Every structure is written in C-alpha cells, then in structure tokens.
Amino acid sequence: MDYVPSFDIGRQLPHSNCERYHQDETEMNLERVPNEEKLSLCRKYYLGGFAFLPFLWLVNVVWFFREAFVKPTYNEQLQIKTYVKRSALGLLLWVAVLTTWITIFQHMRAQWGEVSDYLSFTIPLGVE
C-alpha cells in the first residue's frame, strides 16, 4: 500500500520570522517590521534600481513614502527619507529618458530606414 501523508488543517505551525511581518500571505505590513529591517529593505530596493530596474524605485517610493515623511521621527527615518528621495529622482530621470527616446523613435522611425528596422521588435506595415 502506498504511503499517503495526512495533513492536519487545524494545527498551528510554529511562527517563523517571516510570518510575523505579514498580515496574511499576500500583504506586506510594514507596521510589524522593525525599523532596522525597514531601512535594510528600503536600501535594497534603492540599490536594485541601479540594475536597470526602475520599477524597484517606484515600489520603494510607494512603500516607504509614509515611513519617510508621515510617521513620527525615529532613528532610521532620515536614511529612509534619503533613499526614498533618491529613488523618486532616479524614477523621474528614467521616465524622462524613456519618454524622450520613445518620442524621438516614433517620429524618426521612417527616416532612419534599416537602422530603425533592426531596433524594432515589430515593423509596422505600409511604412517605407
């Protein structure tokens, strides 16, 4: 006879460090995270943005804006505020550069000929 594991659904598993920071499995609750870990997480997202991942800067600004500018003062808040400001600046720079490139490329694509075809993922029909 094959062994079939049984699971006791009602049994409480011991809490790990990670579980205590979450209200449920899908929502991160920064209220429960110690300030040192908030700073560490904020710093990781800030540095991750330099790996051509500006979405991390957006997440950093959205997640930590309240921690940096609304909450009462605590020791790590000044550093978090710095990372949030720099993340916002980096994100705005990325948006400006990307918007400029997209605008130039859309207007100049037909004039650039073969070069623009090599840069394009799809080539629009009917444009020479």
From TrEMBL:
Q: Which InterPro entries match?
A: Gamma_Secretase_Asp_P_PEN2
Please provide the record's keywords in A-Z order: Membrane, Notch signaling pathway, Transmembrane, Transmembrane helix
Q: Per UniProt, what is the membrane topology? A: Multi-pass membrane protein
The cellular component terms of Gene Ontology attached to this UniProt record, alphabetical and capped at eight, are: gamma-secretase complex; Golgi cisterna membrane
Q: Name the source's superkingdom.
A: Eukaryota
Principal location class:
Golgi
Q: Which Pfam families match?
A: PEN-2 (PF10251)
**Where does this polypeptide localize?**
Golgi apparatus, Golgi stack membrane
Gene Ontology BP term (one)? Notch signaling pathway
TM region positions:
45-66, 86-105
Q: Which family does it belong to?
A: Belongs to the PEN-2 family.
Question: Record's PANTHER family?
Answer: GAMMA-SECRETASE SUBUNIT PEN-2
Q: What is the name attached to this protein's record? A: Gamma-secretase subunit PEN-2
